[in-house]
Design a protein that fits this description.
about 55 residues; single chain; alpha/beta
């Protein structure tokens, strides 16, 4: 699944990551925090600059 973080707040971004059954690629990340918290057995690729508390 490919997500554009510039269109999503961190809560909605993380809800989509949690609901996906596949690996996730996040584009245009700029300060979104808590990306991937509580997720296991999934690869998350972040392109951009994530905020604090990554994974």
């Amino acid at each position: 699944m490919k997500l554009s973080a510039c269109e999503l707040g961190y809560r909605e971004l993380n809800e989509r990551i949690h609901s996906s059954d596949e690996d996730v690629v996040i584009e245009n990340c700029f300060g979104q925090r808590f990306i991937g918290c509580g997720v296991s057995a999934k690869t998350i690729t972040v392109n951009g600059t994530p905020g604090n508390a990554l994974g």
